[in-house]
């Protein structure tokens, strides 16, 4: 209930501040666990995506974002939970696996951090590792726009990426990075499509 209220309020504010267009909502699985993976240019990306997709998204977000009380309240209301970057945050990983096992939608930025120049960088292994271990699809998402007030922001959801070919494979950390990079490549394609 609180999530829906927060989503409505924050979504309304975002619609006032930006011209938000959503493309490809039908690519979001209606049920079952999945991972949604957007590019990441701004701190408003987690609430932006959460407010405009048709399922509750539980975001893995950097611990530092929760230090601002106002932003922390919004993030938690929208299902976000903290992760310590630069470490193997076991509690965040376990919580992510629990969410996916319960059939929920996990939101992860595949690069693991915000891009300062808007360019997509190198993927971290976490997205592929979680998707393969928990046997869930990945939905690539491109957020396109300059974030200037009253400008247009487009959220494009790509087709679900099925990683079932890797479910029974013995994979290294490098393999997970390579597979996660494929997800970033799918986001790039969405950004380039007209």
UniProtKB/TrEMBL annotation:
A GO term from the CC aspect: membrane
EC number: 2.3.1.51
Reaction equations catalysed: a 1-acyl-sn-glycero-3-phosphate + an acyl-CoA = a 1,2-diacyl-sn-glycero-3-phosphate + CoA
Keywords: Acyltransferase, Lipid biosynthesis, Lipid metabolism, Phospholipid biosynthesis, Phospholipid metabolism, Transferase
Domain Phospholipid/glycerol acyltransferase: start-end pairs: 34-146
Enzyme class: transferase
PANTHER family reported in the protein's UniProt record: 1-ACYL-SN-GLYCEROL-3-PHOSPHATE ACYLTRANSFERASE (PTHR10434)
Protein's name according to its UniProt entry: 1-acyl-sn-glycerol-3-phosphate acyltransferase
Species in which this protein is naturally found: Calorimonas adulescens
